[in-house]
Design a protein that fits this description.
Structural class: mainly beta
Number of helices: 5
Mean pLDDT: 87
Helix content: 10-25%
Strand order of the largest sheet: 2-3-4-11-5-10-7-6
Shape: globular
Distance between the termini: 45 Å
Radius of gyration: 18 Å
Length: about 280
């Protein structure tokens, strides 16, 4: 059975912004603050209807992780945690895009590699993705979120099926060509990492979540249409200007969400985005 976009939307549901009263220890990411000597290219491959996954080496094996720029925190499954000999502990709370709470645990330490790029999290979130995904979708060992690239400049190139962690020498050109102003969301205790991009509204600047886990198209919250901040026409399209880029007509879906809007895989497939994730410590 070919999964629908509503099935794929299950993945984007866990934006793990952690509650401050249950904060984990700070991620050990000091090594990640050093930019690579040369730009590192991380291959992506198709997972389901525009969603992308990558191969992460963990425990001497290649594991399949979804790349989710809206996920907030990198996470692993309980099965992988057990295989690595790490018992989950504690309790965290994340929230679906509609505001529904989702609980998860932690493992004390996690290490993986994407080619020459090393991922280290202490602790890492643990969540059973089978609670969200139907059995016909390929098995996932976890989710890689933007917190794994904290301190770097990262290019998302959906059309080329790759992420690029930029060397210092390549950063100015990439930011000049494909950089977008961002608002960084790190949750109440600073452990998570998502980005929101500015969208010009009728009366004010709006902020749309950049979410590579959203395959349902560009989402717009109902209050924007009600207040005429975004004008959605009879064809369910709206003219949107993201950052300083030219305005364009995009198909949109009006949906009750926690954000002004969401730019998902439909936007990413036509737009290369470079994110400056430095200076977050």
């Amino acid at each position: 059975m070919r999964p629908s976009h509503h099935i794929c939307l299950a993945i984007l549901a866990v934006s793990v912004f952690l509650r401050a009263d249950e904060a984990p220890r700070t991620q050990d990411a000091s090594a990640a603050l050093i930019p690579p000597n040369v730009t590192l290219r991380i291959p992506l491959r198709n997972y389901c209807e525009g969603l992308k996954c990558l191969d992460l080496q963990v425990g001497g094996k290649a594991r399949t992780f979804l790349f989710d720029s809206g996920g907030g925190s990198t996470l692993i499954t309980p099965e992988l945690a057990k295989e690595l000999g790490s018992a989950p502990y504690g309790r965290g709370v994340g929230y679906r895009m509609n505001g529904q709470a989702v609980e998860f645990n932690y493992c004390a330490r996690f290490h993986g590699s994407l080619g020459a790029w090393e991922l280290q999290h202490a602790p890492v979130a643990v969540f059973d993705l089978r609670k969200l995904l139907p059995p016909e979708l390929p098995r996932l060992d976890g989710v890689v979120a933007l917190d794994s690239f904290r301190g770097q400049v990262l290019t998302l190139d959906w059309a080329a099926n790759e992420l690029r962690i930029l060397a210092s020498s390549d950063i100015p050109s990439a930011l000049g060509k494909t950089g977008v102003e961002t608002r960084i969301a790190t949750g109440e205790n600073g452990a998570s990492l998502c980005v929101l991009l500015p969208v010009t509204g009728e009366r004010e600047t709006l902020w749309f979540l950049l979410d590579s886990g959203d395959s349902a198209g560009t989402l717009v919250a109902p209050h924007l249409q009600k207040e005429h901040s975004i004008r959605v026409d009879a064809r369910s399209t709206a003219r949107l200007q993201v950052g300083t880029r030219a305005s364009e007509s995009l198909p949109v879906t009006v949906e009750a969400i926690n954000y002004d809007g969401v730019l998902g895989t439909h936007y990413l497939k036509d737009h290369v985005i470079t994110l400056d994730l430095r200076h977050l410590h």
